[in-house]
Specification:
Largest sheet: 5 strands, mixed
Shape: globular
Radius of gyration: 22 Å
Structural class: alpha+beta
Mean pLDDT: 85
Order of helices and strands: HHEEEEHEHHEHEHHEEEEH
Number of helices: 9
Distance between the termini: 18 Å
Number of strands: 11
Helix content: 10-25%
Strand content: 15-25%
Length: about 425
């Protein structure tokens, strides 16, 4: 879902992507007669950041490296020719080198060759064949898989690919997205980085080691841009798609599985509490941002597209009748003002569901909603579905938090501010 919001500037539900690893749905934008419920694709008609820069500034080049996770690149086994397909080339990218979904963070495609060649760390099971794909040089094929076994750290391999592309890039502006696999399962580190954590558990060595490996490559990315005299006026943005997986460290969690920390925030991945959705948002752009700044300005991945359009001087160039949920962050980046008001609420809805013969069926208890208004008042809700449609639900419970003063969401203020609670519930329902 997060990737869909980044690509389109819209809430992921507008693209019929309700969660990860879902399938085409009866009555959706991409009607299919698929067989197996595997993955639903980003519609090829979606207006994306790559399409936007090419449509509004013809001299822009676009490239994507890393995880895609917005659909299968080709119909899966057991599916058919109408299986919904999505890859970066269909979303506006000139060049791309990507995986359909998660791969190990070291020796990422080793399962396609020999298990004995896999760097497994604390993982005991077999690694599946998860490979990189790219446009095919064979005119008879649209895409082709990587034929070389990838050694070492996955993030280093991706930055290698970016550097090769940049060296062959004949000048001019560009938009590049690099979506690393760290620290998704299977997170595994090479010995170079595992050895830096001698007193930690095996899982922690892999988790922290793979994170440090990625951090090193982000530093290398900056060095590459500097070497080509591009660093000063290139906007470099880093963020994450969600909070940490699992239950965390002891005593609550299992250190052998998911060591990630929320820093005291409530909830984790798959939750709309702050621990599930509050992630780093770091922007480096020396030509415009000339001092270090930490801001509480509320923003999300849907803000990328309107921000990019604003930067290239085409803030209203999205297609007519195409609602944008995000808001340009350029005024904040230019002014550095922490007092800036967003002036536009932010809504979330997340659910898990199964696909049945008559449509989609939502699991009760796994449907959450959240609404952020005035920059710091947050409504968090448990929802219950009345039927097969996301539009027919009612609110089971609602909590109100002031996340500026209470980022860990420990104090429910719904009884203290009942009028605000009701207005926010009404606004969320209308949204």
């Amino acid at each position: 879902p997060t990737r869909a919001t980044l690509m389109t500037g819209r809430n992921h539900n507008r693209e019929c992507i309700y969660m990860a690893n879902t399938a085409g749905i009866s009555g959706s934008t991409n009607k299919t007669d698929f067989i197996a419920p595997e993955q639903f694709a980003l519609p090829t008609t979606s207006y994306t950041i790559a399409k936007a820069v090419k449509a509004t500034a013809a001299n822009y080049s676009t490239a994507h490296f890393g995880k895609w996770h917005l659909g299968d690149f080709k119909p899966v086994a057991g599916g058919n020719k109408k299986w919904p397909v999505s890859h970066p080339g269909l979303a506006g990218y000139d060049h791309w080198y990507a995986t359909e979904r998660a791969v190990p963070t070291a020796t990422p495609n080793c399962g396609c060759f020999s298990q004995s060649q896999c760097t497994k760390g604390h993982w005991l099971g077999r690694f599946h064949c998860t490979n990189y794909w790219m446009p095919s040089v064979d005119e008879k094929l649209s895409i082709a898989s990587e034929t070389e076994r990838i050694p070492g750290d996955d993030s280093e391999w991706l930055v290698d690919k970016f550097e090769q592309w940049l060296q062959n890039h004949f000048g001019g502006p560009f938009l590049v997205t690099i979506w690393f696999h760290q620290t998704h399962k299977h997170f595994v580190a090479t010995d170079e980085f595992r050895d830096k954590y001698p007193t930690h558990t095996s899982a922690q060595k892999d988790y922290f080691g793979s994170m440090e490996a990625m951090d090193k490559q982000i530093g290398r990315l900056k060095h590459i841009l500097h070497k080509h005299n591009l660093l000063h006026n290139t906007l470099l943005s880093f963020t994450s798609d969600n909070g940490p997986e699992g239950k965390g460290l002891p005593p609550e969690g299992d250190p052998e599985e998911w060591p990630g920390s929320t820093g005291g925030l409530s909830g984790r991945k798959r939750s709309l509490l702050e621990g599930g959705i509050r992630v780093p948002g770091i922007i480096h752009w020396p030509a415009t941002i000339n001092q270090n700044l930490v801001t509480n300005y509320p923003a999300g991945t849907w803000d990328y597209l309107p921000t990019i359009l604003d930067i290239i001087g085409k803030p209203t160039s999205h297609p007519k009748g195409w609602p944008i949920d995000g808001k340009s962050l350029l005024p904040v980046l230019r002014s550095g003002s922490e007092a800036a008001k967003r002036g536009k609420p932010i809504g979330w809805e997340y659910t898990t569901y199964e696909v049945s013969s008559v449509g989609r069926h939502f699991h009760q208890g796994d449907h959450e909603g959240a609404w952020l208004d005035d920059g710091h008042w947050k409504l968090w809700m448990k929802l219950e579905d009345k039927g097969m449609s996301m539009e027919t639900f009612h609110i089971l419970s609602a909590s109100l938090f002031n996340i500026l003063e209470d980022p860990s969401e420990k104090t429910d203020l719904s009884e203290t501010y009942p009028d605000r609670l009701q207005k926010m519930k009404e606004a969320f329902t209308e949204w």
